[in-house]
Design goal:
Layout lengths: L1 E4 L5 E4 L2 E2 L5 H12 L5 E2 H9 L7 H20 L4 E3 L3 E4 L7 H17 L3 H12 L14 H27 L3 H14 L4 H13 L3 H19 L5 H11 L34 E6 L5 E6 L2 E6 L11 E6 L4 E6 L5 E7 L2 E6 L4 E5 L5 E6 L4
Antiparallel strand pairs: 1-2, 2-3, 4-6, 5-6, 7-10, 8-9, 10-11, 12-13, 13-14, 14-15
Helix pairs in contact: 1-3, 4-5, 4-6, 5-6, 6-8, 7-8, 8-9, 8-10, 9-10
Length: 374
């Protein structure tokens, strides 16, 4: 399989064996085609990007020669034609997984969506996989070439955002001690990124280093004032205040996922699609003969069954799926507003007392979190 690597010095490999790509201009032409993979790039555009406003005599002929050499090298190595001609333009055929830039962008998007869905473990793994594709500065061989400047800046900004997202996921997983050193290096390298300061402050605070966390804020404030003439953003100021007050919301048990449960419309994504459970929790919000049951893969309606146990109005019951019968009624659930499965537990919102309840498979409330309705 052919692979194109741009996140570092340019490399093209066939089943792990490097392909000889020729001189700088020929390699630059390949990069331009890769950055527009599967799209035709007109010959005039190639000339302009390779030589700028003052191309040498015979520039178009030189492009034709470079294309011929690239075709020969890639076909000899892979056995198939990779560069095609399209009415005065050239097109390089490549699948997304063959180009590390395209693969990085796809993984970055997947990780960001997982983080938004509060799947911190998945987000950390996927974003870590994306970052592992980097071997150095992007397009390192062409950092002084005008055609590469905008793309290098775009990729570096995208990488910085992915690193911040991965750190956010790690903090949600209780890995604050693990990320402190990396965050300190990132802040030193880019002291104007306020999100990095926030993450470092939170990580230090959770490591029991409150004074160091506050020192980070003061350093950030001083740097922003000296470099840009501005005060820290509201989020950074609020975090400093929370640290000063030792706000309990800043604490996170090591290895714990976020306890916040989204609204009922997001219940389905909290349930592992491949998990089968014999016992299910459901809210019984009225005296009707049908109740809504939370099932793996979505919501369904099941008829109430005759059983020795009966669930009254505004209660939460455990259904034994093998017998299609009520096996337990959760005590102390208040007025249930919703049920969801996520982060290894079943969660019930108590709208009467503003609690979030964690319930075990036997129907026992094992934890209560205040402020669930906020």
């Amino acid at each position: 399989m052919i692979g194109y690597r741009l996140l570092g010095p340019l490399e093209v490999t066939i089943d792990g064996t490097a392909v000889d790509l020729g001189g700088l201009k020929q390699r630059a032409l390949l990069v331009i085609l890769l950055l527009h993979a599967n799209q035709p790039v007109h010959r005039d555009v190639l000339v302009d990007q390779l030589w700028g406003e003052h191309p040498p005599a015979g520039a178009e002929h030189a492009v034709n020669v470079y294309i011929w050499r690239l075709r020969k090298a890639l076909k000899a190595a892979s056995g198939t034609q990779k560069v095609l001609t399209r009415q005065g333009a050239y097109l390089l055929q490549a699948a997304e997984e063959q180009i590390d830039v395209a693969l990085f962008e796809r993984l970055a998007g997947e990780g960001r969506r997982a983080l938004a869905a509060e799947a911190a473990g998945c987000a950390s793994a996927v974003l870590g996989e994306a970052l592992a594709l980097w071997r150095g500065a992007p397009l390192a061989d062409f950092r002084f070439e005008p055609f590469a400047q905008a793309e290098i800046a775009r990729l570096e900004e995208l990488r910085a955002g992915v690193m911040e997202d991965r750190t956010e996921a790690d903090l949600a997983l209780g890995r604050h001690a693990h990320v402190v050193g990396e965050l300190e290096a990132l802040v030193a390298a880019d002291p104007l990124r306020e999100r990095l300061h926030q993450q470092l402050m939170l990580a230090l605070y959770r490591c029991g280093r409150q004074a160091d966390a506050l020192a980070v804020y003061q350093n950030a404030r001083r740097t922003l004032a000296e470099e840009l003439g501005i005060e820290p953003c509201q989020a950074l100021r609020q975090l400093e205040r929370a640290i000063l007050e030792q706000d309990p919301s800043l604490e996170r048990p090591p290895g714990a996922e976020s306890r916040r449960v989204p609204g009922p419309g997001n219940f389905r994504r909290l349930i592992p699609a491949a998990t089968a459970r014999r016992k299910r929790l459901l809210p019984v919000t009225g005296a009707a003969a049908a109740v809504a049951v939370l099932l793996v893969g979505g919501l369904a309606i099941l008829p109430a069954t005759r059983a020795s146990l009966r669930a009254g109005p505004n209660t939460v019951a455990v259904i034994d799926g093998s017998r299609n019968a009520v096996s337990a009624v959760v005590a102390g659930a208040g007025r249930p507003g919703g049920v969801a499965y996520g982060a290894g537990a079943t969660w019930v919102t108590d709208t009467a007392d503003d609690w979030l309840l964690r319930v075990d498979p036997a129907g026992q409330v094992v934890d209560r979190v205040t402020g669930a309705g906020r």
